[in-house]
Design goal:
Blueprint (H helix, E strand, L loop, with lengths): L3 E3 L2 E3 L44 H8 L28 H11 L7 E9 L3 E8 L5 E8 L8 H10 L10 E6 L3 E7 L3 E2 H7 L6 H20 L2 E2 L8 E3 L5 E3 L6 E2 L19 H4 L8 H16 L9 H12 L14 H6 L18 H10 L10 H5 L34
Antiparallel strand pairs: 1-2, 3-4, 4-5, 5-7, 6-7, 8-10, 9-12, 10-11
Helix pairs in contact: 5-7, 7-10
Length: about 425
């Protein structure tokens, strides 16, 4: 991912892990296409030559399509420079129609390959786009006639169509039929949990730093736009063979308008749920995600989950045993919390995080401590965490990269990480 200097240019690379080889060797990068409407007209300068034929490049620029798109046979012959498609500004209705004619929004445009997983509402398949021949992930959401689309699917679509960042999974297409809603995402080789398993739960510490920075970078982008993920866990962080990490599964995410707005406290997988939420708080902001970042940071560093509780009571017990049972001094108001009182926890003293994270240096332990604060308002924010001394070795330039940009290089071709 990052870390090599040469010719005055700073680039970054991932350290090769000794992971299992892939069975098919495929790691195609999905296209950068999106079928949602544009908010501002795409302005393209075309040479004013009435006799000139319309090219694929003209269509790609006009509709913001990737260079490797395959247009249907005979599609170009329908247009001239005087066609409505090239009028300015381009209307949203015409853009939708044009994308549909190319093949977006249609199930037959994608070929299902392997089944990747199944949940309560959705099944995820590995697929291939006929438009680009690239791999995609097809999230097929079953629609119940009485209930319609699950609210989680509606949230995911409404948020992801507006989130465009190198460290957030890209939503390429949306296909709506009577029986299902299919979300077409870029394909990434595996999630962080699988990556940990394939590395024998021992990720190189350089890669831990790079993965953590990418997680913070994607999260900071969300938080700047008032979006809370609310379900951070290794299974929702996807990684490709270039070491790019991307936030995924925004089904529980929420767009917030006021920092103290009340939401459900039944969010975030138990192991990554902060203590204030475990104790019933529904008043939270972006800090809800930062506790999960700390838990994931620890898990990458040690190879084991930090607080693997099976119940809320056990989860809190694990937290207090490591960080100390909170008091009125360490967590104002806690002694008035009815749930906290009912559990009647022993008075644990805080243990030293250094004793549990031998592979982390002092800066890493300090950052972990800032993430694992009882009170949400005391947790370090994503933007501040990106500037923490733990990341200083990556250089200043990494903080100013455009949202859509990331540079990944490998010193040798044989060090590419392979997945199965």
């Amino acid at each position: 991912v990052w870390g090599v200097r040469g010719g005055g240019r700073l680039c970054y690379e991932i350290v090769h892990e000794d992971v299992k080889m892939g069975s098919d060797g495929e790691s195609d990068q999905a296209s950068a296409t999106s079928s949602e409407e544009v908010h501002s007209p795409v302005r393209v300068r075309l040479r004013n030559n009435p006799g000139r034929k319309i090219s694929t490049e003209d269509i790609n620029k006009r509709l913001s399509l990737p260079a490797d798109i395959r247009l249907p046979d005979g599609y170009l012959e329908k247009f001239s420079l005087n066609s409505p498609l090239f009028e300015k500004p381009l209307s949203r209705r015409l853009r939708r129609v044009s994308l549909s004619e190319i093949g977006f929004g249609k199930l037959e445009t994608y070929v299902k390959l392997d089944k990747l997983g199944e949940g309560t509402y959705a099944t995820v398949y590995k697929g291939r786009s006929k438009l680009t021949d690239n791999l995609v992930a097809l999230k097929e959401i079953r629609l119940e006639h009485e209930e319609g689309a699950p609210c989680t699917a509606i949230r995911e679509v409404s948020l992801l169509k507006d989130l465009k960042h190198a460290n957030i999974v890209t939503l390429h297409d949306i296909i709506h039929t009577q029986k299902s809603l299919t979300l077409v995402f870029e394909y990434l080789d595996k999630d962080l949990k699988q990556y940990l398993d394939d590395c024998g739960n021992c990720i190189h510490m350089h890669n831990v730093k790079l993965f953590l920075f990418q997680l913070l970078r994607g999260l900071n982008y969300c938080h700047r736009r008032k979006v809370l993920h609310r379900d951070l866990k290794p299974q929702n962080l996807l990684i490709n063979d270039r070491g790019e990490l991307k936030l995924a599964d925004f089904g529980l995410a929420r767009a917030k308008s006021i920092p103290t707005k009340t939401y459900s406290n039944e969010v975030v997988t138990l192991w990554y749920r902060p203590p204030d939420i475990l104790l019933g708080s529904t008043d939270y902001s972006t800090q809800i995600d930062m506790w999960g970042v700390g838990c994931i940071f620890y898990e990458m560093s040690t190879g084991r989950p930090l607080f693997p509780g099976s119940t809320v009571e056990e989860e809190l017990h694990f937290i207090f045993k490591l960080l100390g049972t909170p008091t009125e001094e360490t967590w104002p108001g806690i002694t008035s919390n009815e749930e906290f009182i009912s559990y009647n926890y022993p008075r644990y003293r805080a243990d030293c995080l250094h004793n549990h994270t031998p592979r982390l240096d002092n800066d890493g332990v300090e950052l972990l401590s800032k993430l694992l604060q009882f009170e949400g308002k005391k947790r370090i924010a994503a933007e501040e965490a990106m500037r923490h001394p733990y990341f200083h070795c990556l250089g200043e330039r990494i903080l100013t990269l455009p949202d859509s940009e990331f540079t990944y290089t490998h010193t040798h071709t044989h060090t590419h990480i392979s997945f199965h």
